[in-house]
Amino acid sequence: MSLLDVRDLSVVFQRRGERPFTAVDKVSFTVEPGQTVGLVGESGCGKSVTSLAIMGLLPKRGNKVTGEVLFDGADLLKLRRDDMRDRRGRDIGMIFQDPLSSLNPVIPIGVQVAEVLERHQGRDRRQALREARELLDAVGIPDPDRRLKEYPHQISGGMRQRALIAIALACKPRLLIADEPTTALDVTIQAQILTLLKQLVDDTGTALIMITHDLGVVAGLCDTVNVLYGGKVVERARRHELFAHARHPYTHGLLNSVPRLDSTRGERLHAIRGSVADNIPWVEGCAFAPRCDNVVDACLEGAPTLEPTATGGDLRCNNPVSEEVAVP
Amino acid sequence: MTERTGPLVELRDVKVHFPIKSGVLFDRTVGYVYAVDGVSLSINAGETYGLVGESGCGKSTLGRGLLRLVEPTDGEVVFDGTDVRALKGEKMRRARRRMQMIFQDPLSSLDPRQSVESLLLEGLKAHGLANDKAETSKRLRETLEAVGLPASALTKYPHEFSGGQRQRIGIARALVLDPDLIVADEPVSALDVSIQAQVLNLMKDLQVERGLTYLIIAHDLAVVRHISDTVGVMYLGGLVEEASSEELYREPMHPYTRALMSAVPVPDPVVEDRRERILLAGDLPSPSNPPAGCRFHTRCPWAQPTRCADERPALREVLSGHRVACHYAEEIAAGQIRPHEVEPELVRPAEGTAPGDPGELIPTI
Amino acid sequence: MTEPTTQAGTPAPRRKDERPGRAGGASLNRLGDRKKARLEELAQASAGKGGVSLFRDALRRLRRNPAAIVGATIIALFVLVAIFAPLIAPHDPVQRFDELTSQLAADHIPGATDGFPLGSDELGRDLLSRLIYGSRQTLFVGVLATLIGLAIGVLLGAIAGAFGGWVDNILMRVTDVMLALPALLLAITLVALASKSSQWTVILAVAIVSVPVFARLLRGSMLAQRESDHVLAARALGVKEHNIVLRHMLPNAMTAVIVQATLTLSVAIIEAASLSFLGLGDPNRDRAEWGAMLGDAGVRYFEVRPELAYYPALAIIIVALGFTLLGEAMREAIDPKNRR
Fold it and tell me: Which residues form the ABC transporter domain (chain B) (predicted)?
């Protein structure tokens, strides 16, 4: 059994007096124990909303979540709020993009880590603080004894993200969701954090859902990658397969449009034309059709379905990029 | 592709220091943020100079100092033979037509209350170039066409456009004045990945068509390398390495450049699995209290007990056209010095900066 | 974003980097004509609209907000009543009616009777007519006080925000002093200075109290504008400094001030009423004023006939609420975070 099995998850935002907006549209994917799964896409593709829906962190009003989120076979969406709150932090940890706003500015870092242990593991304060110190040490925060007593604004962005990881890992969760954990950080700090995450996943055996817009981050980290567009999974493949033979024109376009450090300089980038504002609703056809180079008639006759590919992935496209075309 | 002539821009030992003020009733200067601390570089006409570095390294401040949007504390800024710093009032304002800027956040840099037409007209009016109505209208349309926007965009407002289109408006606003130099501060980092390529391609096309000279400031080494002829790497207010884009990628000589290069993720699992990362220990030191000697020595895996901690290395030409500010560049390149473990030093977020602000302090005039 | 039609977007213009050979051109030709037409139609739909300024955009959102509609309706009614008071009021508000005065007693003030729907006040005048005429006074005092406060405040704030430095420092210390004065104390002082109270002391007192609010708000948002990218962009374009202040900083900073003015109107009305309530307003007892009505008769005859207090109090509350609702709705509508 999969650790996490997301089935047909949909999130529809409905604000009064406005048209309903489908942010996540029947997304399904699974996470096996110890596996690292990537959710990749641009802003507005629904990747963050997906993670918030899994964690039960969407606001109570103004949205409708349907589908199933099976964690260990139990549907998280059916849990009462209290039970879900117990699960969060204990079974599932989460790391956010902005470490400063995710930490409480008026509580010392040590206490913030310790509180998680007290709440979920029933430790007393002294024991919890001792474990918090070990955790800070484990995530590579120098001089953890002193850091325990310090406040979030007193440490740097990279250190804050480490502290947040320590909090997320405090209860040894079996699943960690990282939502753009390095986007706010500099590259050299990003490299530190990614190395740390990889090492923690290897050491503790926790599964990781990595949400990012950066294909480079995914390339070094994820076992399986889900590419989202317009709220739907458009392509899913194992890491090496995806980067070597991207089949969906969107994935293919993304890979070709980013300048690579190791590519020949001055080569023209193959831009994807238009912007997400050009999308058409999925009920009308493929949302990506207006921007797609491979568009065919069928693309405007209802949404294509997600079909398994010969290489063990899934693909939602009527006219995929041929397998021979390797990404340069 | 581009004709090589003399330098259009020359910076000589430019410094931008911001005073840190404190006090209840009367502000007292209690220290300085050494945002840019002695940078010399030159940009040839028709070429692209890419300035790369992490937040807090002073790259944005240098770009603004060049345009005198912040006042340099010291040094010379020579643009096409004239010392920009010596220009006063109206003369400086006039000179701005030839040196334009593109901003990171296309929405916040466009006045939300003005239509695209009025945004584009503003610069023309400021330089008395909007006298003939028919002529002006033609000029606006041509500029919009050049950046790939329809003429119908003129009557619209910035908030009605998508991110990539807004950046096109920002480019059009700079372009309409027919400048020689464009300073682009993180021109694509606020845009979605699929849009970045459109904007980068557009900038490249415009350079070829109009013979523009670019100073591109970005944190993304891949972007900078892609678009630039020459790349300068900044660390904590100073230039640590400068070389042609190819050369820098082929043979990075400064330890910081090497670390930076090894940290940039490449969207290719084969490369990612093989590469060796040089992980830097700790964080960027505060620019208000930079380390003595080489500014990088506190994090440098190749740091040596002699010289590094007490003598600031000058930017010197190690190979032809390849300048490096490291005492031991040759020895490191030859493999005579091996990298070692570095104990991370604790770095406090800079005093006076807002919490969460990575420290790029840019007060404006 | 699966719904392009909800985007206040633009069509996909033909771009240079589209590479029509490889891209759209050829493949688009293969599309069924009907489908192609629909794609065009979709593009047209979003292209047709546009040119919507921030102001119109905010207005559109304002019209959809029930709070704004309620507030605007209250204010509209209030203004109409004030303007057409002589036509609406059944009686002269000053006249004492014999049929009412005859019934007045120490322990009795007549309630609703024929021709006098709300009954009499303590002097045998028609309460309804006085309430209706009272709206004129409230509108006059509230609007004038706010306008004076706004004018002085904007002047001070704009100077401080435009020049900065020591000018700013001095002006802000002055507003600090003004902030320290409570309206009541100021009014008493003004009355003492003027040797007798009038509605002008009330107007002036309320205006002066609102000056620092406007001044600080405008200065603050002008300073924020000064730091903003678009002001920097204008400077980089070589726009003259006074144009930057007048065309970029001031207009963008004024939005917040105008919203605040709407909110201040309600405060001004309440403050003016409370000053009158305390007898610091117009000494002319013939002039109907809600605060004075509440203070004079409402309190003294509360045991006898509480309606004398209820009605003017209710009037004050409803009108103040109207301005607050509209002001808050405006603030919400203008906030770019709420734009979709």
Answer: 9-261
Could you say which residues from 228 to 247 on chain C have a Cβ atom under 8 Å away from some Cβ of chain B?
228-240, 243, 247
Strand B238-244 versus strand A92-95 pairing type: unpaired
DSSP string, C11-69: -----GGG-TTTSHHHHHHTS-HHHHHHHHHHHHHHHHS----HHHHHHHHHHT-HHHH
pLDDT score, position C37: 58
Within 13 Å, how many C-alpha atoms sit on residue C81's CB side?
22
C36 and C92 share one domain = no
Alpha carbon distance C264, A287 (integer Å): 48
CB A267 within 8 A of CB B203: no
In a domain, B220, yes or no: yes
Same domain, C200 and C228: yes
**Enclosing domain of residue C19:** 4-48
Measuring CA to CA, how many Å separate C223 from each of A309, B365, C214, C256?
58, 11, 14, 13
Encode pLDDT of A193-228 as tens digits. Answer: 898 899 888 888 899 999 999 888 899 889 999 999
Q: Do B156 and C11 touch (CB under 8 A)?
A: no
Residue type, B82: T
Answer yes or no: are the C-beta atoms of B108 and C229 closer than 8 Å: yes
Are C249 and C162 contacting, i.e. CB atoms less than 8 angstroms apart? Answer: yes
CA–CA separation, B43 and C76 (whole Å): 64
Q: Could you report the per-residue pLDDT of B242-266, keeping only the tens digit for each?
A: 999 999 998 999 999 999 998 888 8
Chain A residues within 8 A of C42 when measuring between CB atoms: 280
Q: State the count of interchain CB pairs (< 8 A) between A and B.
A: 170
Kindly state whether residue B276 falls inside one of the protein's structural domains. no
Whose CA is closest to B41, among B234, B193, B170? B234
Q: How many CA atoms lie within 13 A of A309 on its CB side?
A: 24
Per-residue pLDDT reduced to its tens digit, B16-72: 999 887 766 667 788 888 999 999 999 999 999 999 998 888 999 999 999 999 999
Any idea what the CATH number is for the domain that residue B199 is in?
A: 3.40.50.300
Q: Nearest-CA distance from C53 to chain A in Å?
A: 19
Verify that C144 and C238 share a domain, yes or no: yes
- Could you give the number of structural domains in chain C? 2
Q: Which residue has the higher pLDDT, C270 or B214?
A: B214
Mean pLDDT of chain B: 87
Q: What is the ipTM of this complex?
A: 0.84
Strands (E), A17-130: 21-31, 36-40, 63-71, 74-75, 92-95
For residue C138, which phi and psi values (nearest 5 degrees)?
-60, -45
Rounded to two decimals, the pTM is: 0.81
Residue B161 domain flag: no
Q: Which residues of A touch C (CB under 8 A)?
A: 17-19, 21-22, 25, 44, 230-231, 270-271, 273-282, 284-285, 287, 289-297, 300-301
Looking at the complex, does the CB of residue C12 fall below 8 Å from at least one CB of chain B?
no
Residue in B109, B126, B155 closest to C230 by CB: B109
Spell out the residues 6+ positions from residue A312 whose beta carbon is closer than 8 angstroms to its own: A237, A238, A241
Which chain A residues touch C1 with a CB distance below 8 Å?
Answer: 21, 44, 230, 276-277, 279
Which residues form the domain of B215? Answer: 7-112+171-253
Disruptive mutation site among C1, C232, C239, C245 for chain B (greatest number of B CBs within 10 Å): C232
Within 8 A by CB and 6+ apart from C137, the residues are: C199, C282, C287, C288, C289, C290
B156 to chain C: which residues are within 8 Å by CB?
Answer: 10, 50-52
- Would you call C45 an interface residue with chain B, using a CB distance cutoff of 8 Å? no
For residue B20, what is the enclosing H or E element? strand B7-22
